[in-house]
Request: fold
Amino acid sequence: MISKELVERINTLANKKKEKGLTKEEQEEQTKLRKEYLKAVRQQVINQMGGPPPKDNSHKEDCGCNKNKKHS
Reply:
């Protein structure tokens, strides 16, 4: 879940980066927090859609091509 504190910290670091720049530790924290945020967003989308994304079944049965290759 995305907490209010997580979003506030991400925004604080983003604003500081624009104004003064970030230390190496702050850059690492920002990267970690962004990854955490994106992971939570992706999970929310998957949950709303009812599960993991469907498999790619783009191969056409009667095309006559090598079935191990995908169509372009």
User: Anything to note?
Assistant: DSSP finds two helices and no strands in the chain. The mean pLDDT is 85. Residues 4-12+21-49 form one domain. The first helix runs from residue 4 to 19.
